[in-house]
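TOKENISE THE FOLD
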Amino acid sequence: MTEEEDYIVQNPYQPTEKEKLAIEELVNKGLDSGDWNSKKTGITEFKNHMREHMYYEQNCRCAYCRTELPIACCFLQREHIVPKAPHPQWMFEPRNLCFACDKCNNFKGDKEVLRNRYAVAYPSDSKDFLIVNPFLDKYSDHIELKDGIIYIGKTKKGRFTIDTCQLFRPDLALERAKKKMETENPDTVRTQLLALLSSLPILDEEKSKALENFGKVVKIYKQKHRD
């Protein structure tokens, strides 16, 4: 795992005065999850500024799979670490906001990630969270990238994160194998991928499809690098 992947966010987004006033207005009337979609200028600016700020604070990588996402062509999901539907009071809390890839965000959904779902104040300690928190946790303390391809949980929190965001999905393994191929022999990487896919809790059909797709990637790579 690279240093860029193994980040801890040090600087949550700090809203502008205009954004603070818009948020305060919603808080005063009583928050519900629908307020996230408010058309108030201060709210839309807050959401856009937060996402851009967090993109670079997170080294351009998803909070959960740590895959690098090109801002020019990927839709960056604004992510509530503690989901807003059951916990609307923290909807605009900067320490609860980051960005995630579309798939991790959707698989995580509204799953509970707090040890104490009845907490009154926003939790500030790593032990309060069931999931790896990009503000509080060093990723490599909880998740190992075996051969740089497959996610292995080292702790209960790591395993919860893998299961919740389905980091065992074959397209993620394929993407990491493609990246690894930039510095290693493609045939060696394919052999590693084949061995690692056998350990994933997915259908044989999905494994075969992943290998088939990687074969196409290798073919394109070899054509590009032909002497």
About this structure: Strands lie at 77-80, 97-100, 143-146, 150-153. The chain is about 40% helix and 5% strand. Helices lie at 17-29, 41-57, 102-108, 139-142, 156-165, 170-180, 186-197, 204-224. The first strand starts at residue 77 and ends at 80.
